[in-house]
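To: structure subgroup
Subject: Chain for Friday's discussion

All,

I'm putting the inputs and outputs inline so they're searchable in the archive.
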Amino acid sequence: MGDASTAGYVIAAAAAALAATAIRHLLSIATPRPRLFFTWIIGLATVIAVVHPFKTTAAPLSQKAATAVINLVLGAAIGSLVNGTAARVIRRRGNTGGYQPSYPS
């Protein structure tokens, strides 16, 4: 079920998730359409991660394909979770969240 490289893979996935969070935060501060930029960045990084096993290892094709599928699932999960969370926690200026206080006149 696992070997010495499994722990390294998990640590790398966690580091990728933290890096994605940092990138999304910086894009939220610096760009006019952070969701679009982030989607493109995560999409390209996921494509690179999917292709990487086929170009760099001498493993059998079935193992390369399994690693590529895992990388695709991880990229999609990280991208959707970070982007979805950021969309729900970012407040726009002037947005009161639908709450309109009523003051007696």
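Points worth raising on Friday:
The CA atoms of residues 51 and 68 lie 7 Å apart.
Helices lie at 4-30, 34-56, 61-89.

D.
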